[in-house]
Amino acid sequence: MLLKNIQTWLITIPADMFNRIQSGLILGVRLWVAWQFLPSGWLKLNSWDSTLFLFKEEYRVPLVPPELAAIAGTGGELIFSILIVVGLFGRLSAVGLSAVNAMAVYAYAHVLLSKGFEAALGQHILWGFMLLVVAVYGPGKISLDHLFSRRRMTPPQVGDTHAIAV
Fold first, then answer.
1. Per residue in 23-33, pLDDT tens?
2. The pTM is what?
3. CA-to-CA distance for 149 and 117, rounded, in angstroms?
4. Dihedral pair phi/psi, residue 163, rounded to 5°
């Protein structure tokens, strides 16, 4: 009996408490990381001449022309951020935004790996871990992915003409 009470107080109750905040926590992670990339993509889009200049002169993206890198980077920041916010294709979007993040670090490594830029590099690492959490655990219950998966799993009812096929 004593062992059961200890298990309840040390394992079951804390697990129940943390389980209750999972959806809000993962939503917060999604919103925070998207907010880092969405304004950056928007700025690139609205200052396209400056964006092209940076991709030609400052960023060192390998294997692709600077114009294509600018389009891919800007599009990735905007599209994957929006998908992360609404939780649509959450895991795939997290992987896509991780690729944008990793490429940004690589392309700007000559600055980010310099003395005095440790905090900037640390932010990219933090965002990478946050995106890894979304990729591994999914976007949570407050997401379109969850909404659509629940609709698919609901068995059709008699007379239901709007059932979604699995």
1. 999 999 999 99
2. 0.83
3. 42
4. -65, 140
